[in-house]
Amino acid sequence: MTKSIVRLILAASALTLAACGGGGGTEIATIPPPPPPPPPTSPQAIIPAATTSQQFAAVGASHSFDHNSQTPLLDSDHQLQVRYIQSSNSYEIEFPESAWEPVLVQGNTVTTPQGGIRMSIRPTDSEYSSLFSWGDGATYFGFEAIGIATPASGVPVTGSANYSGQTAGSTSEIYLNSPLGIRGPIELSFDFGLGTLSGNISPTIFSYVDSSSNALGTISFTNTVYSTGSTTFSGKFDTNLPGVNSFSGLFTGPHAEELIGNFALPYQSPIDNQTYQADGAFVGAK
């Protein structure tokens, strides 16, 4: 046997021993397979419970840039419409006086592909509802709540329930050259059997510029409208200040687990004691 062949045999033996972890091993070492690819990701859900194609109920308060900012647009024709497309697991929006457009959902930000319309979703624990601000930077802007409307058969007709919610909106008050925003809790108490509604709102005005804020106190509901078995409700706030004063909404979820609504509230500013208009939307849950 030639020396070169001997060297090859010895080298092959050494490699085999190394692969076995030395001379005493019995298992053959193998190269681990590459990790599996990550599962495909789905877009962020605007309405987590939506699984079938549908257009959501929408309520809110919007403003036109070329109209008086103290007068909110509360009718449904002036709110952004949103729908879910099951086949593509995607969402589309319809801008007032426009056509349906697909959107890109990235976290809490929703935009049209050309960036013309932008939505900013407010974090909540809701499954059947969503609260957000929106605008196109030129024509309209607003605050809105959307959701899967409760069918008439799903609204309780006995018992009672309390709903705790959050509001988001804008005001006509200017501070540091920027409009103030409004936010805060809202509480709604329904007696389904008696067909009554009571509650209150505890808003705070705040600055986007320096993060300062001023609480407006708790304001009770008055002149509420609700009847046993109704899917909707409305009312006013207990204030004599001039301006648009109202709230309205509807239940969401299969059995009225949640609710959505809009509000318009005149208030006296703690900053200059003048009267201003606030408006927006809210989402609540039991």
Query: Roughly what is the average pLDDT, rounded to an integer?
Result: 87
Question: What class, by secondary structure content?
Answer: mainly beta
- The portion of residues assigned to helices is under 10%
Reading side by side through the largest sheet, how are the strands ordered? 11-12-13-16-17-18-19-20
Shape: globular
Distance between the termini: 89 Å
In N-to-C order, the SSE pattern is: HEEEEEEEEEEEEEEEEEEEE
Largest sheet: 8 strands, antiparallel, barrel
Based on DSSP secondary structure assignment, what is the total number of beta strands?
A: 20
Integer tally of domains: 1
pLDDT < 50 runs, ≥5 residues: 1-30, 37-42
Query: Strand share of the residues?
Result: over 45%
Please work out how many helical segments DSSP would assign.
1
What is the multimeric organization of the chains shown?
single chain
Description:
It is a single chain. This protein has one helix and 20 strands. The chain has 286 residues and is mostly beta strands. The N terminus is likely disordered. The protein has one domain. Strand 14 and strand 15 form a beta hairpin. Strands 11-12-13-16-17-18-19-20 form an eight-stranded antiparallel beta barrel.
Summarize the structure.
The chain has 286 residues and is mainly beta. The chain has one domain. 6% of the residues lie in helices and 47% in strands.
